[in-house]
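LOG
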Amino acid sequence: MRHSDCMNLFDLSGRVAIITGGNGGLGLGMARGLVKAGANVAIWARNAEKNRDALAELAEFGGGASIALACDVSQEYQIESAMAATLDKFGRVDACFANAGRAGQGAGVPDLTEEGWDAVMAVNARGPALTYKHVTRHMIERARNGDPGGKLIATSSGQSIMGVNRSSDYAAAKAALNGLTRGAAYELARHQITANALLFGYYETDITAAADPKFAQWMEKRIPLRRPGDHAGLEGLAVFFASPHSDYITGQCLPVDGGLCIS
């Protein structure tokens, strides 16, 4: 097989992907791969300065076009507005990466607060659900007009299936996201829409940078591959799940963690 044939296997030209929280960390890593593969990308994120920086970086790759829209996924009206703006710009959406997330309260179970719990759930569980609500309305309409298919890919966490100290709210929100993934996959299969969740392990991001340095040392000792996840690897992962080559994978919650969940 020629090198060009290998590249064409994952050509996403003409496809459109949304990435919530796509202006940094894991989301920006995914955006890089999608743009390089030719997809048009809409970043939905809150920080205007980071949005501008992300667009400037993505423009350097050539490939697909990208836009950034101000969106807080804890506010449904902002999701609705971003969806309308995305369709106005690109005309369709083929893949949605529900990636926006926030850290937990950092409190043990006896010290959880109602406000803190609700804030974590609003972004990490309700946000993806409402994002999928508006994205799938479009995808289902497309299917009914003879153009079926769509990809829903959630950024979950290994904490959804394993325990970590002072992180029960975050773990619970990501476990809810796994449940959303399975339910959506079953319900939407009739429209050729797939839904999967990626259970990321330890990656160096803004969230982990704010954590106790001892946590990073503990994690690296526990990960069988003995290192954090590499952001470059996110590019191919995103392209695969946005491409037709993952069409027969749905309802799965796949750990991407260097073996952390088996250690």
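LOG (cont.) second protein
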Amino acid sequence: MLSCYGKGIAMQESRLFKIVYHLLDKGQATAPELAEKFEVSVRTIYRDIDALSGAGIPIYTETGRNGGIRLMDGFVLDKVVLSGEEKQEILMALQSINLIQNTNSQTLQKLSAMFHLGSENWLEVDFSRWGNQAFDNEKFELLKSAIIQCKSMKIHYANSYGVIGERVVQPNKLVYKANAWYLKAFCTQKQGPRIFKLNRILDLEILDECFQRRHFPEPEDIPKAKSCQITLRFPEEMAYRVYDEFDKTQIQRQENGDLVASAEMPEDAWLIGYLLSFGTQVDIISPPYLKEAIAQQAKRIYEKNKP
């Protein structure tokens, strides 16, 4: 554990780096501005400036109406001020970006050589589904381009009822959540923010129309489909799928090995199909009306496919 003195030194070193980063970003700042930003006194800021100057950082102050604390023009942050851990974090971050952008940037190789560190291949990202690599990766690249360039897109989308429709959307962000990719976008037809599951985007095209990027509301402010709380019981041999699709906090293991899962799910045609996908390996505990809905749908399937 650090002593109070050790903690003080660590905090000062962290603040010194942050002051340099701030000046590199903003160009200049006054001592009162820095004092307010880092929650210290103006006297402490001046002591920090002296410490930075003594460490060889070309920092100086100018008096007068437009004066302030500056770094000498052309100054770049030397690699020696970064710890070994910080250098490794930079390399890992760059590697992640390269994977997401599906590129092989030389920046990673140059920094690896400059830091005298190897870049471990610790992460592999593949946006495609099994057997559908070309289209899924192309879809991701098109969406990424439209988001960065603020270009509208025309998409053909299959909703949760299986209805395929054409939408014109203003893409905002790609999100990975609950084992699936989603697109946050403003839908011009609905005149509001919507979330689209990437696997249901069947076709897409970037349009020439540009848009002004909008603030995307928090998830709780986005219109949602009607949902219900369901409780399901599964035999122990279905554990592989139960743990794939439910969080461990939603699962209770019974004394006989059965698994009881409870979660909020959309109350639509998707839910019926989802429950049918378990076949005879699921028992619907609640709500009771789902039992009847599943039985009727199973009967229709049998009548349609009976020999």
